[in-house]
Give the backbone structure.
Amino acid sequence: MPARYAYRIEKARELMVKKDLDLLFVVNRENLIYFTGLTQIECLAVLIPREGEPCAVTLWLDADYVERESGLKTYGYHFPRESLASKVVERIKAYGFKEPRIGFERYFVDFAVYDGLRQAFPEKNFIGVADLFYRIRSVKEPQEIEFMRRAAAAACRGMEAAIKSVRPGVTELDILAEAEYAMLKAGSGGSSFRPQVISGERTLLTHPCASNKKIVPGEVVVIHLGATCEGYCAKICRTVAVGKIPAEQEKVYQVLLEAQGRAIDILRPGATAGDVDAAAREVVEKAGYGSSYLDVVGYGVGLRQSEFYPIIGKGRTEVIEAGMVVDLLLPTIYRPGLGGPRVTDVIYVGENKNEILTDYPRELVQI
């Protein structure tokens, strides 16, 4: 097994001891990439016992490939007489477990797989340990940062193409099409989330996406894009003013831009996530918009576009460490008629200084 994957498994085992887990059951795409390096993933599970050799389970057709590329001992199952669930149960029993405490991820355990496990082992010993995975992944290795730099470069190319295509009469989807094509041409492996090109009052929606709405003069267009490289994510958000927009709406963008800058200045090893949030929040509250501002302003970024460690938010106690990557600033000012503008960048926390991976001009774009 390559050294970096062995190191990651040992990090996981240290936290397994603290949580009194016998086994980690890994089927989530992001964690499979983290522990194997494989991005061509279907019908795959990884088992990490607290003691003993970790292994992988997959379709027999892919078993040799997975073992060769990941370095993990890999067991194939023959569908339909066998299933991922039956083979996983077989391998867990082969470790000698009868009533193991099994750690599960946050997302995407197929019901058939879960049902097979609970028929074989006591369900009371199934433990949700999403925080364990996010903590392991929060501090990046140099190769991970390089993948994220490449993803960020592709996202910036997409932003450039998107901004060039903004004009009255085009649709949000027209703009997104130009952005996605540019990102793919720049080497992106695809978007890390459902991209957002939104305009007018739609900018106040919580999780909007591009639609057939046409751009009209006097409104802002918010462009929030993501790109990937070998599974690793980067994202960027910028705001375009189409013609003359209300003066207070322009002020909102400047407030957010100042808040982002203050937060980036505080984002240093040893600071807490709450410290970073407070720096941004002070600017927003001083400007009179505190009641219209969310309590979370950023997340860790890595194999997911929004990881749940650290969470940059009000009163959060996570300690920022060198090697983390976070995004700042997520929210807008949620007030009809003047809210909506946004700005977001991905920042790598270095030992001595930060690196803004999404290195693209941040001023309000006027067209």
Q: What stands out?
A: The radius of gyration is 23 Å.
